[in-house]
Design brief:
about 150 residues; globular
């Protein structure tokens, strides 16, 4: 059983040495998120329609209005690339902070990016499939927990 004295001693050591790294599983999960962000970000530039399908939104279906230009000129495709740029930047930042041994910066970034996950959940819940909304909700929750664990 851990006493109050040992807990306060461990907390003091952690506060005095901000470069201590969190549990390896938390680090591993943060690096998995970063890798996925980088890969998904690059994928949005290579194949934006397929990347939108991964997100849960089908941009390849023909438009309901026949006067609309073909779906290959759909302006939403460019927005998918913006979303990909966001994920790419976050993934690169996590790896940069990890390389610099800055776990609290990773934690802060992931906690703040939980808001992106919540927005993604709301968007996919309203305009995409239910399964993708659930995946985003779970992902946002895990991202927040990992961010908290990296603090």
């Amino acid at each position: 059983m851990i006493g109050v004295k040992s807990l306060s001693h461990n907390l003091t050591l952690h506060l005095l040495n901000p470069f201590t790294m969190p549990h390896p599983w938390i680090q591993f999960t943060a690096l998995i998120y970063a890798s996925f962000g980088i890969l998904l970000g690059l994928y949005t530039f290579i194949s934006p329609i397929s990347a939108a399908l991964l997100f849960g939104i089908d941009l390849a279906s023909p438009p309901s209005n026949p006067a609309t230009p073909p779906f290959t000129n759909n302006p939403a495709i460019h927005f998918v690339r913006v979303f990909g740029g966001r994920n790419l930047a976050i993934g690169l930042a996590v790896f940069a902070f990890y390389w610099q041994r800055m776990p609290r910066a990773i934690g802060t970034l992931l906690l703040c990016c939980t808001a992106c996950g919540v927005v993604d959940t709301v968007v996919t819940g309203a305009w995409a499939t239910r399964g993708s909304a659930l995946v985003h909700a779970v992902g946002a929750g895990v991202m927040g927990a990992v961010g908290w664990g990296m603090m």
